[in-house]
Amino acid sequence: MNKIVMSQSKLATLVLAGIAVMCANANSFADSPVDLGTVQSTSGSGAASTEAAKQKTAAYQAPTKASLKAKQPQSVIDQHYIEHNAAPTANYTDIVAIAPSVSDVAPNGPGGMESQGLSMRGFQDGQYNVTFDDIPFGDSNDFTHHSTNYFMPQDTRKIVVDRGPGSASTIGDATFGGTITVSSRNPADVAEINPYAL
What we know:
Layout: H1 2-31, H2 47-55, H3 58-61, E1 74-77, H4 79-85, H5 92-96, E2 102-103, E3 119-120, E4 123-124, E5 129-132, E6 135-136, E7 156-162, E8 179-184
Parallel strand pairs: 5-8
Antiparallel strand pairs: 1-7, 2-3, 3-4, 5-6, 7-8
């Protein structure tokens, strides 16, 4: 019995000594610098490669995006989607139909006839607001909008579908149903010609 007790105390002494040595080594190792080698990038250089890499991401390719600053549910349809997916004859009603909670009926296709049933969150035309560069527009005798007064996709920078009632700064006749904001492209710094063909 004495032998067992003695070997247990020796074992405890050895374990404590080992822990003390490991602690001493850890402290001396933490003070010495460690060389991690060099880090090298293999994907091209400059802004062009960064932009090309960004364009391959799912977030860039998504048809609609949500603003991180929005206080109400929004869908942002950017110029990339408009240029690559909208028909040249499309109007804003054809483009916003991709956004969640928006539906449209265009019997003769994009640009062939006025939109007959654009609705947002179940609100029919006349129960939501439409603005162009933050200026509300609509029919002169009620709150509805004529989609044949359309804005060419080539001139549209983005469309924001705001599904909330807006704030006191949101101007328009029927903001309680939400707002579709059409924004035009920024003017170019120099004169240029952009031909389009159907």
